Amino acid sequence: MIPGSFHLDPTARGRYTQGMNLSELDAWCRSFLEIEPFRKIDDSLNGVQVGRSAGPVTRVAFSVDACAETIRRAAEEEAQVLFVHHGLFWGSPARIEGALLERVRALVDRDMALYACHLPLDAHPEYGNNAVLARMLGLSEVKPFGVYKGVTLGFQGSLDPPLTLEEAVRRILPDGSKPRTVLPFGPGGIRSAAVVSGGAPHELFEAVEEGLDLYVTGEPSHSVYHAAQEAGINFLAAGHYATEVWGVRAVAEKLARETGVETVFVEVPTGL
Questions:
Q1: N or C: which end of the chain has fewer CB within 10 A?
Q2: What's the CA gap between 73 and 212, in Å, rounded?
């Protein structure tokens, strides 16, 4: 179960009693994920990356990364579509060879479509990675944070009552896994925090400017150590993968509850 409550469309389930085709799934995703507005700033080819035949979609697998293991396990689950945060195609056109060729071949051989949603899934105010992380942390008075190419991806807010850093770690990593880096340079009682999932260590500087007590992201960077220490702010790098499972899980839950299409989450943690 994903932390927090979501707004669901009660009329959607009746429309897809026999499943949905790939075009309908794409339209459903675009109805709430702002894919087009991110086209100019996101290197990811968001939306359908690999198509399939015209048959119905009755089961969708969700995962963080489009890798060989994820594709194989999604096929074992008899999914017709694999929805991921990190797809196969980024930026300029790619040569279909090597590992990329094998991944595309595996999808085509199984007649499985690939659907990717990168920055729109980080930034979504309800179903995005950062929105879920903000709820997990318990932020109130939430407002946008983390400017990337003119668009905010994360959130900041207040904590009342304040948290210890250890409590914050437990909330962000509820499975008990270990964070990549913890820098306990800020107040022991954390009253304010910001979150930006994935690889965003340098948004620490924005957190410093905002006077926050804690900054949470996925990956650390050597260059932020002294900055955090000198500014007196706590820094938590919980893991790129660990901070980006939440958006795909939230979309999976929404799809199942709104449409009746079966969903399954394929867990392939990297520990990074």
A1: N
A2: 41
**Kind of pairing between the strands at 140-148 and 151-163:** antiparallel
The reply to whether 13-119+245-264 and 123-243 are identical in fold is: yes
* Domain ranges across the chain: 13-119+245-264, 123-243
Given a cut of 70, whether residue 4 has pLDDT beyond it is: no
Interstrand relation of 181-183 and 151-163 (parallel, antiparallel or unpaired): unpaired
The domain 13-119+245-264: what is its CATH number?
Answer: 3.40.1390.30
pLDDT at 138 > cutoff 60 = yes
pTM of the model: 0.93
- Topology given in CATH for the domain delimited by 123-243: 3.40.1390
Q: Tell me the C-alpha to C-alpha distance, in Å, between residue 253 and each of 96, 104, 171, 186, 258.
A: 33, 27, 20, 36, 8
- Strands (E) in the chain, as ranges, are 47-50, 59-65, 81-86, 113-116, 140-148, 151-163, 181-183, 190-195, 214-217, 234-237, 262-265
Over residues 180-189, mean pLDDT = 98
Residue 255 burial by Cβ neighbours in a 10 Å radius (0-12, 13-18, 19+):
buried
Mean pLDDT for the stretch of residues 219-232 = 97
Q: How many residues does the chain have?
A: 272
Residues 6+ apart with CB under 8 A from 142: 134, 155, 156, 157
Q: Is the dihedral of CA 14, 20, 23, 25 positive or negative?
A: positive
